[in-house]
Amino acid sequence: MPAKRATLATIAAAAGVSVATVSKVLNGRSDVAPATRSLVLSALRQHDYVPPPPRRAEATGTVELQFDADLNAYSSEIIQGAVRAGGELGVSVVISIRKGCERTSKWARELVATGRRALVAVTSELTADQLAALAEAGLPLVVIDPLNLPRTRVTSVGSTNFAGGLAATQHLLSLGHRRIAYLGGPATAACNQARLHGYRAAMEAEGAVVRQEYIQHRRFRYGDGVAAGECFLTLPEPPTAVFAGCDETAFGVMEAARARGLRVPEDLSVVGFDDTQIARMASPPLTTVRQPLREMGGVALRRALRLAAGERIDSHHIELATELVVRGSTAPVADR
Fold first, then answer.
1. Distance between CA 4 and CA 47 in Å, rounded?
2. Domains of the chain (ranges, CATH numbers)
């Protein structure tokens, strides 16, 4: 006999919340506390919740999920979340890569002409002209982890980056590290700024010195992690730990350490950010800040569809909770 499909009431009972709260989480509403949202998401996964079939009016059109750089492990997690949500709603998701300079007014019109109902842009830097082109074309936009903060109000989805940066740095401080470096992404990226502020807040609260030479801003790419790691490790007084703004750059730092004959974590502790699948496969497995990337992809797609349906969005920015995951790439500071 087939298992009975979980309902909203099932999920609400498992999470100890109301059915209305579960509905808010599924629809990407912002008026849910991070801890409550985490409980609901856990219950949804545990019960393998599948929403009822979409109404006929919802099951048409496509949503463009657009990246501005080559896909990586971070992208894969976002894609899986968005595609799953699209499947639940009967909406196709088209994946594309489009550099910033290619986003012209013609680009916006082409998206509409090819049947796109909405656009979800990931880690993108959007200009005022590009936003105006989308608005003129009548194409709703949701941005995941925007690289800039345009003056125009843009609907966006992210995570609690400040809390994540704070937790990562506090973890290293608890292990006795005081010479802690921060390797972030582009300096203007909103997510990078929040993680940096979290790092600074933890350091200052502990009375640890934030050295200017211990802070670098690069791209969220492996090669940048290697280059930054080389810079850190050739300093007269190199750091004993590095907090990297993404898993990919954390792996680059680990490679830079290996190339210099240093061991992770015995000689250098490394913390990443994202908790992509490869974080668990690394040697040693990576201590990292988990952001719910799949949920972020799903929430962004649902919000984009709500905008396309003409619904009012009560909050233009939503943040999902982060969580520190301690694995084998961090250890107490060695005596030096």
1. 10
2. 1-52 (1.10.260.40), 58-158+293-320 (3.40.50.2300), 161-291 (3.40.50.2300)
